[in-house]
Amino acid sequence: MAWGDPYIAMVDEDEVFDPAVHCRFDLEVERIEFGPSSEDEFATFQIDVRPPEGGLANPGKKQWAFFSYLHRNGNVYFLAKGKVDAFPLGGDPESATLLFKCAPGDWEAAQLVVLQATKNEGHYDDVLIASDKRDDPVELLDGQSRVIAFHPATHAVGLHDIFGVGLDVIDFGLEWYDDSLSAEVTAPALEEVEVNVTATWKQMLSGIVFATNAVEEAFEDVVATLTPDDFENRWPRVGDGLANANGYSVRSSSLVRTYPAGQPEKAGPFQGSSDNYQYITDSNLTAKEARPVELPIVYYDPDISLSWSAEQTRTERIKIVLRSGAQDTSLGKGGRQVIDLDCQDVTIDDVTPAWKSSTYYSVGAVVRQGSANWRRVSAGMSAATWGLDFKRVDTTSFPPVLVQNWEKQELDASPLGGVHLDRYLTTVRGHRTLLAAAMRGRAVLADSMRAVEITVEVPLDDAIEKGLWIGKVARFTIPRSRLAIEGDFLEGKVTAYRMTISADDDDHICSITIKCALGSGKATPAPAGTVSTSLTGDDWDVVALPSVSALEPSPMNAGGVIRANVENAVADQIAYIEERDYDPAAGRTDDNATDPSKLISDVPTNLSFDLVPLASDDKLLLEAEIISAIPFEGPRQIDLGGAA
């Protein structure tokens, strides 16, 4: 063995690396290339070997390999553990290429555990993610400016900030090959990101209107009529809708005849023809004369209440403009990128458990039933149906009485807090959604800030001894005039590297690629009165938005009685008959046309209601635009001399 030798040991997946055991040459290696091609991919090691004998997929052959390296300092470095990902079936009799991927067998579950732990951070809000995507790594990473990384040797999983915040810094100084330096501005950093957040839901209101007073006021406190049968038939009954007043129905109703003291029992007298009103006292029954006629007045004690329900579609749309603090260079402006985000249904409460039958509920238990939450007020086993469980017979009292098991809660655990509420994005909970949306914009700004890509080659032994992998930040000292930058160093998170070892070449090398951020590096605190968050906690990493809590939504119409109207009250009925009853002097001599008992049928007493209309606009819209209170500054990992 000599320093620089790459050891390849074919192993079982569950083996643990031991240099005393695994520093061996299970494969005769001619050349090996090792590393990830990008920061969001698994590292691989590709080896050129003499063609293996037998099928590599044979169950008897080991599929995993340890890759280790004997350093010139005498130490063995365990670099990678991988599984065969690609192998040749044949062809070249002299050489074959095997590709090993450094991914653990349970990598999907492992990365999900790490990502789940970030759900309590400001970038995450399940309102912005469909319910079936809330464990999707792509969705969980959105807004984080981080990448999942698995160490190629240990397979430990980590979540790395793309600027390298929290990662160890490897300082190569001047230990890099001068002729290998490549520097490129990949694209101008964005100036702004526009994030449009839209929340749409149906506001649902319901209530009870007690209309008895309105009825009594319409009758001037005395509810009476000369047409009692018709009035009673027209009186609204429980469950009836009210004319064209969509959304209203009769909740309770009663109409009881009364005999109030001091009120007249009859109206009149009116005049009718003696042909219709004959009396045995008439001396001549054939004589045609006017006869007095009285009609009974019927009085009532009414009681009526209405229930109402209404729906109103609401849409809130907030435009957030995030400004970048990237260095203002002469390389051109990156312009604005637009992101459109639609909130999920903010009325859905997926926290409160649904009511279940045959389940014991203690006092205070809260369940979801229909569109509301309900609190248990008496302990016990639930019935077979909600309707049966809502009330129970209390046999501890005599006589037994019906008691209510559940009471409706004003609020629920939905993001909105209840379907009756008229605002979301302007609330405290809504500001959390706006910040999470803004963090998605911040992620776009952050990625665009990493606009400078640097690639250099360094001695392989230096890279290995310093523990190079994508979970590091690399710093390089740059001689003056070598690059058009201010200062004498630059740094950035490692995004790719490639270690190359050839059997016939002792001058092994490692190519390293980093991305440097063009941020200002300024410490900019959130102004008072704003809502803010930060991903890294660094002074240059603050997203601050003006509060929109003062915005007022258009109100939705709530149910109510404007007035009750009486058509043909008793006084009107009396006046109508008096103008048309039997009166030969006035020329009204038709027996039937002037008959008071028939005339009254022309003017039945009728009750109607003027109600608050529940129908409104198809959609009530609240719109606003807010501009970030401060720019997202970002780190200054390379200084191009632009304004800070």
UniProtKB/TrEMBL annotation:
- The domain of life for this entry's organism is Bacteria
Please report the name of this protein according to its UniProt entry: Uncharacterized protein
